[in-house]
Design a protein that fits this description.
With 55 residues, this protein is mostly helical. 67% of the residues lie in helices and 0% in strands. The mean pLDDT is 86.
Amino acid sequence: STAVGFTLALVIFAGMREQMSLSHIPKAMQGTPIALIAAGLLAMAFMGFSGIKIG
């Protein structure tokens, strides 16, 4: 299940990067800064799954 989660994270991050390439982003935030912000948001989204208990 670790590989599935990692694949899901990569696919979501790739989709976010694609959307960022099509959006207007201020020059100071292009490249690494916006990628770090997106990675932080994605990490917070996945932290929400740690509270879900199945079974």
